[in-house]
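Q: Convert this sequence to structure tokens.
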Amino acid sequence: MSMETSIRQTGAPVLGVIGGSGVYGIDGLSNTRWQRIASPFGEPSDELLFGELAGRQLVFLPRHGRGHQIAPTDINYRANIDVLKRAGVTDVISVSAVGSLREHLTPGTFLIVDQFIDRTFARTTTFFGTGLVAHVSMAHPVCSRLGAFLEIAAREAGIVVERGGTYLVMEGPQFSSLAESELYRAWNCDVIGMTNMPEAKLAREAELCYATVAMVTDYDCWHPDHDDVTVDAIVKVLLANADKARSLVKTVAPHVGSDPAAAACRCRFALDHALLTAPAARDPQMIQRLEAVAGRVLHARSDT
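A:
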């Protein structure tokens, strides 16, 4: 990782934000620059936007590319997480539009998710594979420390927020059928979207702290008193949510950046007992590809 393609390493947590273009237009964000970072996993969704907010480094990645060019299934999730890790990011907040599966989660509500059900089927879900096998725990798929900061920041910013819920990730790009929507409600899911898997799994493999802010835009199609989901309706709520999302990021950044407990967070050590392939049997090309993602444990184990 060269100094030309990463932020200055200070030991302090560095916040990365994955979301739409409305998220990174924050008042007070200074010294901004767009920069391309190469990944051995292919092209990420876009360049990274580096900036400073109240003296803290922030890094933003437009998940669908600027102008929303990339469909959920076609996002290169591996490259996105890899370049954030290469850029020096330690903590990732995912800001995502979702449909509500619960009456009380009205459009405009922000939900800080703590669980996922992954119903995607057309995406590469891991950095590892033949030549270097690893299995990380996803029992608790988001960072509770980041979730707590998000809840505090949302309340400080006056945002209607709920803490704790299950996000059903569907493949898309079509919206749910009524039967699917009712099935997911029966599974006790709270919101539904198309983007947070395998993003959360890859963040865990990369030993990044990760949390999701799910911004409710609609009631999916289950609610008898609301129209079926349309893009126009979603966009209207998204625009209303954009100001709140910017306010949330601006408010949470100081909490994350000054957290003395960050370095000891268990997310940072997710690979400690995950690698199964014996050192002598590991594919050198895989080791090279995983330099940013898993270099901490690969180097530690090769020295023993």
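DSSP finds seven helices and eleven strands in the chain.
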